[in-house]
Amino acid sequence: MIQRVHHIDFVVRDLDRAVERYSKLFGRPPGARESLPERGVELVRFDLGNVWVILVQPIRSDSPVADFLVRHGEGFFHIGYQVDDVMAEAERLREEEIGLVNPMPRTGVEGWKLIDIAPDEAAGVWSQLVQVNAD
Q1: Where are the beta strands (DSSP E) in the chain?
Q2: Residue 73 dihedral angles phi and psi, to the nearest 5°
Q3: Tens digits of per-residue pLDDT, 31-77?
Q4: Which CATH class is domain 4-131?
Q5: DSSP assignment, residue 20?
Q6: Which of 8, 3, 10, 34 is nearest to 109 (CA)?
Q7: I need a labelling partner for 27 at 20 to 30 A (CA). Which of 45, 85, 91, 127 fits?
């Protein structure tokens, strides 16, 4: 069962500039710059206590995020919903005939286990299941 909104990602062209603006907006510093080379992105997270806001910049032109940026421009990218067991929740969604992009979890920052929900299942919104306490 989905517990809460875990994170919201925004795609940006210039991560340094976006971090500067969001630091002022939130009145707090971000976490460290992080890299997910297998996804072709660098990112910075802001911990707002009950939700992460994540700024994502593509570092390779062949990454899915770069493609998204070209097609949609900067702005909202996706929302992540926290679950206790990502595989059990994925199975529940399959039983409900909710389409998934990747049937097996991929690994995100801090070892988060992620399964993407097909955008057409959520009114065009990119969504993902997130298990944070993955072993």
Answers
A1: 4-11, 33-36, 41-47, 52-58, 75-82, 106-107, 113-117, 127-131
A2: 80, -175
A3: 999 999 999 999 999 999 999 999 999 999 999 999 999 999 999 99
A4: alpha beta
A5: H
A6: 34
A7: 127
